[in-house]
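discrete fold record:
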Amino acid sequence: MPEGWAEITAEWRGEMTFVGRNAAGGTVQMGTLDGKPGVGPMQLLLVAIAGCTGTDIVSIMQKKRAKLTDMQVKVRGLRANDYPMVWNEIEVTYLLWGEEIKKKDVEQAIQLSEEKYCSVGIMLGKTARIKSDYKILKPGESAE
């Protein structure tokens, strides 16, 4: 359970670039800095849903003793044409590598994440339609 307020600071680094920092010292770059591109604020919401649901899936699959060897969460979004240009549609694709991974375990993990645990996805689901799918792959198998 949350114990209180979370706090970040975003420092302007010139032009349209900010560097966000949390209390623990973690940073994220928004905008180009020293020729290196950053991630835009709206894109960070897609990163956030990927990280949030990804940790849920890994945790649940580990509790199920699944032999997960790798995982990727791919997220894409479609924004509204008019301001404030929120995300209208979000698609989440789970790629899971491992041996003997059960389809029903993956489906249950995704359902639990989407309906109960992933606060980012639940929050974004208030304004966007979120769809998901998954693919189970053998170790070393290409996702394409």
In short: Strands lie at 8-12, 18-22, 27-30, 67-79, 87-99, 129-137. The longest helix spans residues 41-63. The mean pLDDT is 96. The helical segments are 41-63, 103-117, 119-124.
